Amino acid sequence: xxxxxxxxxxxxxxxxxxxxxxxxxxxxxxxxxxxxxxxxxxxxxxxxxxxxxxxxxxxxxxxxxxxxxxxxxxxxxxxxxxxxxxxxxxxxxxxxxxxxxxxxxxxxxxxxxxxxxxxxxxxxxxxxxxxxxxxxxxxxxxxxxxxxxxxxxxxxxxxxxxxxxxxxxxxxxxxxxxxxxxxxxxxxxxxxxxxxxxxxxxxxxxxxxxxxxxxxxxxxxxxxxxxxxxxxxxxxxxxxxxxxxxxxxxxxxxxxxxxxxxxxxxxxxxxxxxxxxxxxxxxxxxxxxxxxxxxxxxxxxxxxxxxxxxxxxxxxxxxxxxxxxxxxxxxxxxxxxxxxxxxxxxxxxxxxxxxxxxxxxxxxxxxxxxxxxxxxxxxxxxxxxxxxxxxxxxxxxxxxxxxxxxxxxxxxxxxxxxxxxxxxxxxxxxxxxxxxxxxxxxxxxxxxxxxxxxxxxxxxxxxxxxxxxxxxxxxxxxxxxxxxxxxxxxxxxxxxxxxxxxxxxxxxxxxxxxxxxxxxxxxxxxxxxxxxxxxxxxxxxxxxxxxxxxxxxxxxxx
Amino acid sequence: xxxxxxxxxxxxxxxxxxxxxxxxxxxxxxxxxxxxxxxxxxxxxxxxxxxxxxxxxxxxxxxxxxxxxxxxxxxxxxxxxxxxxxxxxxxxxxxxxxxxxxxxxxxxxxxxxxxxxxxxxxxxxxxxxxxxxxxxxxxxxxxxxxxxxxxxxxxxxxxxxxxxxxxxxxxxxxxxxxxxxxxxxxxxxxxxxxxxxxxxxxxxxxxxxxxxxxxxxxxxxxxxxxxxxxxxxxxxxxxxxxxxxxxxxxxxxxxxxxxxxxxxxxxxxxxxxxxxxxxxxxxxxxxxxxxxxxxxxxxxxxxxxxxxxxxxxxxxxxxxxxxxxxxxxxxxxxxxxxxxxxxxxxxxxxxxxxxxxxxxxxxxxxxxxxxxxxxxxxxxxxxxxxxxxxxxxxxxxxxxxxxxxxxxxxxxxxxxxxxxxxxxxxxxxxxxxxxxxxxxxxxxxxxxxxxxxxxxxxxxxxxxxxxxxxxxxxxxxxxxxxxxxxxxxxxxxxxxxxxxxxxxxxxxxxxxxxxxxxxxxxxxxxxxxxxxxxxxxxxxxxxxxxxxxxxxxxxxxx
Lengths: 558, 558
What we know:
The structure is a homodimer. The first copy, chain A, is an alpha/beta fold. Helix content of chain A is 30%, strand content 24%. Chain A folds into three domains: 17-210 and 372-449, 4-Layer Sandwich (Metallo-beta-lactamase, Chain A), CATH 3.60.15; 215-362, Metallo-hydrolase/oxidoreductase (Rossmann fold, 3-Layer(aba) Sandwich); 458-557, Ubiquitin-like (UB roll), CATH 3.10.20. Chain A is built from 16 helices and 25 strands. Chain A is globular and about 85 Å long. The interface between A and B is large, with 69 and 68 residues.
């Protein structure tokens, strides 16, 4: 994409500099930095999940380079809520400086602390709640309740001498949420009255017309499905969706069924949620997996993860008959979740597999068993009208979402020149009610792959895609250092290409001849021999097989 | 999936044997064989497009093994319409026997003939039209007009002494199609009155409630979009969707714009369609690409392919600024097509790219500019009620579609035991109004990859996925045949793993040591040395890097 990179001018005292570090141009790895008078505040630090053109990548982190040399200036990281795309990169940030304070709600901090425990990090934390104000260096923070698909989410108002920013985090405006904790429009109104200079708002659903339906609407559907189910019910959802699980527990309880929680993250998160009072477990409804075998099938509900068709998760393993629970006729599977773009093939494969085993599969395509966690266009308009922000910076979304969100701002009366469609690394300065783009940093994707962080490059991923699509041919040869004559080999190995390398025997004489010719012409250089092999084999494979595998020549001078 | 393979009993005279060869359990590679009294009729012979877990595969063919040894018994191939998933595998079938007659409508045959020309095959053809009857050996065929997203589609009634089968091909029931050629329910009624023993019907949209909207609804939307567009308009759709292109031509013409057709298949197909009268080109509306530079932007509409985000197609190249048409502010891009599952990430990447360049992108997510080509549940119910078939075999769909279609049949009164949910290779015998499953053949996926057909196996694809996700490490060594001592190497190459192989230097001493130990213990066998290398390097990479690359040891005894 055509981004012009340019360094911003040095930040002047009294000006607030905002850099979206991640989450613009993508759904995930949300992170933004705010700097004024030498101090930096971070909002969120999440991960992005890889797409199919990033094979083998486990996670994608924000590029920390804008703050890497400024770690000691960071006064804290505000975590708006406990989803992976907002907290997942915290362990990697704390590896750089372990004592950066984390600021968030009770549930958010409990979830990040559990995650950090796995990384053997004990963080410094500051628990905050809606309505609470905190001063961190030059930043006066006020936390505002917002409703989302995880409890205890917060927006944060960041007040500085340069002006006031309101950052929503992720939110929607369910008017009848399960916990009655609504997005606090009274606070939005009060902040709007006082003047919001920059509004950074969740764009995820900005291109969805109308209003996001209520979470509460799902309960009756779940209850009917469970009541009608002749045998086992297996519900799959996200392991952080405490209110969804709450509704499953309630629906199971109402139907005299027991619930077995399955999957490590589901068990862990619901344990935390129950301990802290976010999940209200009806007396005796939860059952240990081992005891489930003693109950008849029509008294059981399994609550699992794996709704996205993840191959290693419980549900996919059931579909592939690789799980101890063997699915059969009469079983009801409920995918009470979204279908994240890119996962369609995997999810449908799983659905088809479950149906072949005889299960009835209910999903959002055939029943109202999921609602989104994000505000749709209608709700965003409410926000713009109640806040009347001076400037708008849509965050959390791909280009299409950011553009749609900005269009809503303009429709509600924000001047078009005061809406900023930014990218990761765009540098925005705020001063006296003016927000302007003053630079563009060159930020990349930081890939986590096994134990390596940031070592895999886009070139490596391109190699991987070539390997996947074309396979490779490796040719080994040892040549005499003096004469250039082949003394061992050539030996050819190929993978991902055909059943074996026998097909390549035909090219061996050509390789030997080409090497001999090169040696006769005075070539003694390993690199030149490699080029000869690459050219000879590449041309032959392309002509004979219409394929372009990766060609890996290995020449040893002996 | 748990399919029990068993051979059917020998086919008795007077019994009709039906084998769905492709298209059941997948959307694509549709093909079915019908055999009675020693003669075989084929209906359709299409391709399936690969998913992301089949990297490098160009096409997937039906497994011809049920008919491979019976080629001379084939009386003909009925092609219901000209889509790739119904005709794309014909060249591969005709490679086995070039003179198998192809039977289809004028447009269908024109499209397959154009395709066969590229394969340098001139087929034997029999052109048929709706209402026409033909006798091919023991098969009395009657062709029935059906409406679909390509003109001139046909259903086929296959009458034999064993009973009557009605095969819909792909269809929907648009009641106001552009060419006024509706699905002929009068013929359905007449066939139903006479008795349909087996109904094979398109399941693609069986799980979509209600009715598929009319193609005609799209015209006004296109016209409004083109009228409002300040600069160029680029419409992308499928190159076979003649009625969609017709509506674009008409809308452009109504707005005084010229249309430039782009992309080889678009130009070719519209040429055929115009020549045969299926596309009615308003006088002077088409413009050669070279002349377009002379017209102002607001007088131009480009009609292209690439709506699925295919990287090499015109539209993706525009999004990546790799096309001579450079997209900018004011340009309108209209994706007048479906979004095929699995293509989401690629399509959204393209949309985001186009939007970053300043274009307004209209797609089915934000405007009614596409309708499906397949009958929804409501339309299928009409079919069941008007036909009242004795037996039902849902075709064309994944398990979820087949199950949904069978459920509609049952709702309309077909006994559940008379609906057959089959798979590719299920053998169904029809006799005296009874249809029963009598066998299950073991059919596989036949992958086309470059010039290779059927050589790539699922094991090769698994190799490719491992290469993509984990890369490979290749270790070369030459050992002395007598002593087992390393005389050349070890030399390590790695790809897709880290920037270079330098990271592996640390394992070399271990490899040498392991080989020496093995040699000291008497190992002289190449295979055993390879195992030693594989184990040593594998363990080291797993421990040090938490990765499991493919390990390719090459041992030469010299």
